[in-house]
From TrEMBL:
Cellular localization per UniProt: Cytoplasm
Protein name: Homoserine O-succinyltransferase
Alphabetical UniProt keywords: Acyltransferase, Amino-acid biosynthesis, Cytoplasm, Methionine biosynthesis, Transferase
Binding locations of substrate: 227, 356
Assembly and oligomerization: Homodimer.
Protein source organism: Marinobacter halodurans
Name of the gene encoding the protein in the UniProt record: metXS
Involved pathway(s): Amino-acid biosynthesis; L-methionine biosynthesis via de novo pathway; O-succinyl-L-homoserine from L-homoserine: step 1/1
UniProt keyword Metal-binding, yes or no: no
Principal cellular location given in the protein's record: cytoplasm
Length: 382
């Protein structure tokens, strides 16, 4: 942490917990009688409440998108590079809302919350939620904040799916959707990766059919393996090669199975750290939400018919080395938007970091993102 806050930081921020008493009907047929959402806000809401931007997070994300919780915090929020004064999402011009989704493990109601029916934590009894369910809860959040229409809904990866779903579920409640490094639905390969990750967790002896909290246990090994598998898919071969190559931790082979290569050590570290901060049932829930997302499903698998429901304008961005959600998937989405006569801007960014590139501003990425959000801001000021 620097001695003073950077001038382009939103500064010290404090999360808020908002309670909702109205029942939320879920796609699964179950209902949450009430729930909490943890949110952070940055910037100032203007008089007519027209400059609000919603940030939707990816699988392991949360509400802390920008700024610092304390002067001792080592790193800022997960998207601090893009949110703040003079940044693509300029908090001098926008009121930014970031939340932890339902089912999360960072304060919003989820598997680690208390089940009102039992007095114990939900654990595996927390209902499976979908991207549609998240968007419905976010609409209640907008109502609570007095925001009738978002200037933009923005997200990367799973967050991009939410931005896309907003345009279909509430077409009149957003003017722009920014869909970054995302896809209109997972490929079979992506579903397979998610299943391997889930199997790693559920096979852990400490999982106890999801009731590990009742046993004062945590399936750390399963979570670690799930994160290691996921992390490999977020990076490109080139970026891993550039960062680690075949470098050994020491000079000679040890002819054993401990971490000898730097990349092995890195993956183990990432997995161990993740297993200490993330909930296993939440990981299962989030990956299943990814699997289920498919806007075309309700339109006889016709994505263009689905996109004809939208009214907003779109920015779609993909990254050349993203093999998890390839540019081809973004192009499929853009072609459906064009067929549906929606207004869409699209760019494929040449970046070497794979899927994680959406978190790492490169000059072209930052220029395009900034230019688009500048147009959104100018519309607000008119």
């Amino acid at each position: 942490m620097p001695d003073s806050l950077p001038p382009d930081s939103v500064g010290l921020v404090e999360p808020q917990t908002l309670h909702f008493d109205e029942p939320l009907a879920l796609a699964s047929g179950q209902t949450l009688p009430h729930y909490d959402l943890v949110v952070e806000t940055y910037g100032t809401l203007n008089a007519d409440r027209s400059n609000a931007v919603l940030i939707c997070h990816a699988l392991s994300g949360h509400h802390h998108a920008a700024g610092y919780h304390s002067l001792d915090e080592r790193k800022p929020g997960w998207w601090d590079r893009c949110i703040g004064p003079g940044k693509p999402i300029d908090t001098n011009r926008f009121f930014v809302v970031s939340l932890n989704n339902l089912g999360g493990c960072h304060g919003s109601t989820g598997p680690t919350s208390t089940n009102p029916d039992t007095g114990h934590c939900y654990g595996p009894d927390f209902p499976v939620v979908t991207v549609k369910d998240w968007v419905n809860s976010q609409a209640h959040l907008a109502d609570r904040l007095g925001i009738k229409q978002w200037a933009a809904v923005v997200g990367g990866s799973l967050g991009g799916m939410q931005a896309l779903q907003w345009s279909l579920s509430y077409p009149d409640r957003l003017r722009h959707a920014v869909v970054i490094a995302s896809t209109p639905r997972l490929t079979a390969q992506n579903i397979a990766f998610n299943e391997v990750a889930r199997k790693a967790i559920t096979s852990d002896p400490e999982f106890f059919d999801g009731r590990y909290a009742d046993h004062n246990a945590t399936p750390r090994r399963g979570l670690m393996l799930a994160r290691m598998v996921g992390h490999i898919t977020y990076l490109s071969d080139a970026s891993m090669g550039e960062k680690f190559g075949r470098e050994l931790r020491e000079e000679a082979y040890k002819f054993g199975y401990d971490a000898e290569f730097q990349v092995e050590s890195y993956l183990r570290y990432q997995g161990e750290r993740f297993s200490e901060t993330f909930d296993a049932n939440t990981y299962l829930l989030m990956t299943r939400a990814l699997d289920y997302f498919d806007p075309a499903y309700d339109y006889d698998n016709n994505l263009a018919a689905a996109m004809s429901q939208a009214r907003c304008e779109f920015l779609v961005l993909s990254f050349s080395t993203d093999w998890r959600f390839t540019p081809a998937r973004s192009e499929e989405l853009v072609n459906a938007m064009i067929a549906a006569r929606r207004k869409v801007s699209y760019a494929e960014i040449d970046a070497p970091w794979g899927h994680d590139a959406f978190l790492i501003p490169t000059p072209r990425y930052e220029d395009i993102f900034t230019a688009y959000m500048d147009r959104v801001a100018r519309e607000v000021q008119q």
